[in-house]
Amino acid sequence: MRIITLPFNPSKYSCNVYYVLGDWNRLQDVNTLIDAGTDDFVIPHIEKVSTGVGQKKVSQVIITHEHFDHKGGLKYLKERFNPIVYAFNKSDLVDIQIQDGMEILVGDRKAILLHTPGHSNDSVSVYIPEEGVLFSGDLPVMIHSYKDTFTLSFLNTLEKLSQLDIRDIYPGHGNPIIGNGLQVLKRSLEFVKLSKIIQ
Fold first, then answer.
1. What does the pLDDT look like over 22-80, one tens digit per residue?
2. Contacts of 21 (CB under 8 A, 6+ apart)
3. Which residues partner with 149 through β-bridges?
4. Which is nearest to 21 in space by CA: 45, 56, 63?
5. Of 141, 140, 104, 111, which Cα lies nearest the Cα of 126?
6. Are 6 and 18 within 8 A, CB to CB?
7. Is residue 73 within 8 Å of 6, Cβ to Cβ?
8. Domain residue spans in the chain?
9. Which residues contact 69 (CB under 8 A, 6 or more apart)?
10. Burial class (CB in 10 A: 0-12, 13-18, 19+), 25
């Protein structure tokens, strides 16, 4: 599995867009974008990536949640590549509604789509068990204080993720957490457990 973090328009607020490919550009690989960014800025960068003969540049897009900086570019991707789109909520541009625990192929690896509310009620994460990789969207994974207030759904999300073998976390904003993803999640969980929890 190859993970490419695509550049985004420096003049606009956008999220990280991850381009996930197989190691060998096989025909059965499913070239996948995780999130779409704000606009069409990623398209020429996708076009430059070698994906092999006979492969669709983008077969599918997974939207981690519906905020504009993650979904705004989807209409341009649909027009250019006509991918299958997965998201938690069905809409005009969404083809398949994500169910918690749904399994699909991402690149050349099995992925599990997880409902992970915390940043928003429609938030999902993409977990690649074989690689120990989690694409977390905007889920707050680095909590450093017990003086804040958190929702019960966020607490439940952290508890669920802390049961998984997660080594690397690719967030919606900022740099990846490489090698110690599970430790980061468990530390955040301990802070949240000490905090005020609301429904």
1. 999 999 999 999 999 999 999 999 999 999 888 999 999 999 999 999 999 999 999 99
2. 1, 2, 4, 29, 31, 32, 49, 51, 107, 108
3. 196
4. 56
5. 111
6. yes
7. no
8. 2-198
9. 13, 14, 15, 37, 38
10. middle
Encode 49-84: b = buried (16+ Cβ within 10 Å), e = exposed.
eebeeebebbbbbbbbbbbebbbbbbebbbeebebe
Write out the two tokens for 128.
């690649």
For residue 170, give the 3-state DSSP assignment: strand
Question: 127, 103 in Cβ contact below 8 A?
Answer: no
Q: What pTM did the predictor assign? A: 0.96
What one-letter code names the amino acid at 15? C
Residue of 29, 101, 89 whose CA lies nearest to 64: 89
Q: Is the model more confident about 5 or about 9?
A: 5
Could you tell me the two tokens for 16? 């990280």
Superfamily of domain 2-198: Ribonuclease Z/Hydroxyacylglutathione hydrolase-like (3.60.15.10)
The answer for residues whose C-beta is within 8 angstroms of residue 75's C-beta and 6 or more apart is 93
Q: Which two tokens stand for residue 10?
A: 């420096």
d(CA 164, CA 128): 10
Q: Provide the edge-to-edge strand list for the sheet that holds 32-34.
A: 2-6, 17-21, 32-34, 60-62, 84-87, 96-97
